[in-house]
UniProtKB/TrEMBL annotation:
Region feature (Disordered): 44-68
Gene3D superfamilies tied to this protein: Ribonuclease H-like superfamily/Ribonuclease H (3.30.420.10)
Alphabetical list of InterPro entries matching this protein: Homeodomain-like_sf, Integrase_cat-core, RNaseH-like_sf, RNaseH_sf, Transpos_IS3, Transposase_IS3/IS150/IS904
Pfam families tied to this protein: rve
Protein name according to UniProt: Transposase
Integrase catalytic domain segment(s): 134-302
Domain of life assignment: Bacteria
Signal peptide start-end: none
Length: 355
């Protein structure tokens, strides 16, 4: 539901855009509302604010009576059932030939009477917010993770540490060690800073990772503080909060020639990953970058390459226009790249447009 103030702001923004030459329905699309909604808001017959909160709705015919709710409260607080959840109480009552209410109804009544609270020795579940970041240039948000490469002996692995840039998808730095360690991760971050010629006076950098012990170790956190890096972590036991890092590992493990039978020494593993990193950064045309290579995007060559592709397609269309019923292929990229973007509501869109 949109408040009265936001409706007025939307209308003002659209009127301003139309005055400056924009099409009204296009302005509506930018603010994520339909053209018909705008007409309705402008109508004198439409109330100033949404009337749904003030609507009078009839009570459902199957609504519990006060006596039935009190019976539920009496049963769940009885000595026999006071330590059991509704999921245990309902089948126990059924075994006795008694039905009072369903499990979901019992939970609703308990919540209504403010009796639905966490109990027991275990910690209450905590809802954690998702880490959301965006980058509109290289070296603003890095992501890193650890994966394993088989070592040729069952149960033994080489561990690949890898840092990836969000904006360009370039592999910034990598290394292979014999174990997972926050100290090794700290060394890799220092190396990445040297490779990208970063200093503390530059724009703050975000380093996003999973929740493993190497990612949250004291040695790594101390290094990040010293370098002026803001650490960011995925939610516990959530596998897709670091999707870009997982994606590059999948590309690595599905490459032709991936050593599925293992590499006997760390040197062999390093040589193989070196070849992969060179291919990935310099030759691999990334589908997420409209088929630029990460090096092209990272070094600021992307616009030139895409403009050249666009010129090639425009020339081909002029040469034989019958082969194109519409516009040529779109060779462009979004200016911002998001990591775990939250769903954009109309209020966020309005605030961004008006700021």
């Amino acid at each position: 539901m949109i408040s009265r103030e936001d409706r007025v702001l939307v209308i003002e923004l659209i009127d301003e855009a139309v005055t400056n030459g924009a099409r009204e329905f296009k302005a509506c699309e930018v603010l994520n509302i339909s053209h018909r909604t705008l007409f309705r808001w402008r109508s004198k017959n439409t109330p100033d604010e949404d009337q749904r909160p003030y609507a009078t709705r009839p009570e459902p015919s199957n609504k519990l009576t006060k006596e039935e709710k009190e019976r539920i409260i009496e049963v769940v607080n009885s000595p026999e059932y006071k330590s059991l959840p509704p999921s245990q109480i309902v089948p126990s009552l059924a075994d006795k030939g008694e039905y009072i209410a369903s499990e979901s109804t019992m939970y609703k009544v308990l919540k209504e009477y403010n009796m639905q609270h966490h109990r027991g020795l275990s910690k209450a579940p905590v809802k954690r917010s998702i880490s959301t970041h965006y980058a509109d240039g290289p070296n603003q948000v890095w992501m890193w993770d650890i994966t394993y490469i088989p070592a040729g002996i069952k149960g033994k692995y080489h561990y690949l540490y890898l840092i990836l840039d969000l904006y360009s998808r370039k592999i910034i730095a990598w290394e292979i060690y014999e174990k997972e360690s926050a100290e090794y991760a700290s060394k890799l971050v220092r190396r990445a800073f040297m490779c990208e010629h970063r200093t503390k006076d530059m724009k703050p950098l975000v380093l996003h990772s999973d929740n493993g012990s190497p990612m949250k170790g004291a040695t790594l956190l101390e290094t990040l503080i010293m370098l002026g890096v803001m650490p960011s972590n995925s939610r516990p036991r959530v596998s897709n909060d670091n999707a870009y890092a997982e994606s590059v590992f999948k590309t690595l493990k599905y490459r032709p020639g991936y050593p599925r039978k293992g590499l006997s020494t760390i040197e062999d593993a390093r040589n193989w990953v070196l070849q992969f990193a060179r291919w990935y950064n310099q030759e691999h045309r990334h589908s997420g970058l409209n088929f630029l290579t990460p090096e092209q995007r990272h070094n600021g060559l992307g616009e030139t390459v895409l403009a050249n592709r666009k010129a090639v397609y425009e020339a081909a269309k002029l040469k034989n226009p019958n082969r194109w019923s519409r516009n040529t292929r779109k060779w462009d990229l979004e200016e911002r790249v998001w990591l775990n973007p939250e769903s954009d509501g109309i209020i966020e869109t309005i605030e961004e447009k008006s700021s």
